[in-house]
Write a structure and sequence with these properties.
Helix content: 25-40%
Order of helices and strands: EEEHEEEEHEHHHEHEHEEHH
Distance between the termini: 37 Å
Largest sheet: 6 strands, mixed
Radius of gyration: 18 Å
Strand order of the largest sheet: 8-9-10-3-11-12
Length: 255
Amino acid sequence: MSSSLLEIRDLHKRFGQLEVLKGIDLSMVQGDVVSLIGSSGSGKTTLLRCVNLLEEYEQGVVAIEGEQIGYKERGSKRVRLSEKEIARQRALTGMAFQHFNLFPHMSAIRNVMLGLVQTRGLSRDEAYSISEKWLERVGMLERKDHFPGQLSGGQQQRVAIARAIAMNPKLMLFDEVTSALDPELVNEVLAVVLDLAKDGMTMLLVTHEMQFAYDVSTRVIFMQDGRIGEEGPPQELFKNPKSERLAAFLKSSKF
């Protein structure tokens, strides 16, 4: 493996007879912010979910800091790792989803603390201190004792991001984190992600917000039909698309 933080080689994923990913190659180094764009059904979210093994894949390699995720090679066979090993590997990544997945019976700070106590084994005092730091960072410290039902969608998403980042992952995955939000709440969440990118956090994100992808990314990947259609710096990809497919997609996205 190379010195890449994330290395994906020849990744294939099928759902029954439908091949969703058809040989993806992708690498990222620390500090990269890579946005995946493309039409619905092009494989963006599936690719994201394969990185932390929320979806199993039939062929290829996903590795974080040189460690293959989910499997090991035994002779010519690929063997799935134990659930304990996979759980440890999943902690290398943090993920924020379209829907916030907060526990409704827990306050904002308890939601953030949970993984720190149960997975990382920190004391409650340590977990509380770290959770306060990250809630402050996403502008939610004043609402730390509120329950999800007392928060707006944008506020819930910011708590969910704080929960993921508090675990100190090597790589953050963002899956359409604004798509379930009312339009007026989108910018508050995008501002948080942009702020984290400026701080050098390594991120792989799926987004339909083209201006945001342009502003935040070090590299943009246009996916089509389960393959990488085009990739490059945002200024190049958005201003000078090489394919008619990408040009048509950007036009339909009103970029």
